[in-house]
Amino acid sequence: MADQKDAPGLFASVAGFGVTFRTMFTDVVTEEYPEQKVPTQPRFHGRHQLNRHPDGLEKCVGCELCAWACPADAIYVEGADNTEEERYSPGERYGRVYQINYLRCILCGLCIEACPTRALTMTNFYELAGPSRRGLIYEKQDLLAPVQSGMVDAPHPMVPGTTEQDYYAGKVTQAVAEQRAWVEARSDRFDENADGAQEPVDQVPSSQGPGPINPATSGAAR
Fold first, then answer.
1. Which of 60, 112, 113, 181 has its CA 20 to 30 A from that of 196?
2. How far apart are CA 218 and CA 121, in angstroms?
């Protein structure tokens, strides 16, 4: 009777190794990372990206809903008001400061679900390791999508005759000539101001050399 009672337990112990025995004779799949990088799935949750509208304006409106939705408190946002000379997004506000701390981020995607303008999405980039802790705190310029064909880098005005709703309805397809002209004129003004701010430098004949440095005008620390 004792042998009959122990038989089921012995069989169960041997059957538990069935998976082990079956896998011993299968091919081993080893990824030679980083020499060979296997493509991720299309909906893989990787590094975040701040998207732009087709004309180059930013989609982020600085509402901070992504920061509130983050369970790891990894996102920090500061919003600011748009002006006629400094317009970064359609509407009233934009994200002036945007930080994601990837030492805390768990890549859950809740911030993506909370974003009302689809400004924040996740890419397939997953190589987030770095030599320092400070380098894993991504700033706005690190997360902002690049300027593509048909776009003009912000700040610049909205497409003439459009509203904020037109942008979200997909009626804006690219930057127009008025926006490009505004950006070029603004760049020219900055160049003129930068040239006017430079102090004139006295020309010294090459035969005499640069001459002695005047401590009163050299700007050296005293």
1. 181
2. 50
* Of residues 120, 118, 137, the one with CA closest to residue 128: 137
Tell how many helices (H) and how many strands (E) occur in the chain. 7, 5
Topology of domain 48-189, CATH: Alpha-Beta Plaits (3.30.70)
- Measured distance CA(32)–CA(12) in Å, rounded: 37
What is the percentage of the chain residues whose pLDDT exceeds 90? 64
Each residue's pLDDT tens digit, 55-73: 999 999 999 999 999 999 9
Segment 149-192, tens digit of pLDDT: 999 999 999 999 999 999 999 999 999 999 999 999 988 887 77
The reply to whether omega before 155 is within 30° of 0 (cis) is yes
Amino acid at 82: N
- Domain boundaries of the chain, sorted by first residue: 48-189
Nearest to 148 by CA among 18, 52, 60: 52
